[in-house]
Amino acid sequence: MNTEELKTFICLCKVKNFTLAAEQMYIAQSTVTNRIVELEKDVGKKLFDRASKKVILTEEGRIFLKYAERILELQDTSIAEMNAVSAYRQKIAVGSVNATYESFVKPILDRCLHEADDVAVKVVIGHSMNLIQQLQDNVLDMVFSSIPLKRAGFECVEYDADRLALVIGKGYSRYPEGVSEDDLKKIPYLMCDFLSEIGEFIRSLFPADHVFKLEVDNSSKLLPYLEEGLGYSFMPYNMVKDKIGAGILEEVPLIGFKSLKVSTYLIYRQNYDPSAFLKYAK
Fold first, then answer.
1. Fewest C-beta in 10 Å: which of 20, 122, 133, 151?
2. Would the pLDDT of 231 be above 90?
3. Is the whole-model pTM more than 0.85?
């Protein structure tokens, strides 16, 4: 098993066609075939079904894909860390969910970049479960997550307690007195699938088959549409408080139901000192 075989396997998983995989990798189709055959010999399992024009992952192939991606990611990380040794005194790898990045990580990062010439920082923004997996794989040093991790060898502390606020562009709300649960089902709602208890809470307020005006998986992408008054959305208050204070957004009161507390957890390995990054917090 080698790196080129893994890269070919991942590419074929994406395009599901040997010819397209060969074109994307600028190699002969026979090379793609040979690499996959050798990889299947190495793992001792059939990774693809080739019964039709499209290749389909077997169950073993789906399992192996997760590990193949992690192997390549670990390789890239190790090379980056070795390259950073000569150029920087310290390299810090931070993972963050999007909402937390805007509220907490970016201000720390800005100050670090301005004050520490000998520190290199890698930032990965994603969903909590993916970030925690990268932390466990030693790809990341610390993670700002919306869900906690209870596992031996790791520290997990509540970094911040926030709440969800229902917001829309200033002056665009049709409910100046507030929104009830019944009203919520009628408004143009812009949905961010936070993939955590936040997303579960928001979806519980709507019928199971409800169609949202817009759905994205990155909360910051909603802000321009909220500012234009194109819809309402629940957002972490710390993420939007400056825009509320500046009169760009307004918070809509809730009638007859309460919002959700939102916790941000800082997770890191027990032998790691997060103050290397956190000391740049104001």
1. 151
2. yes
3. no
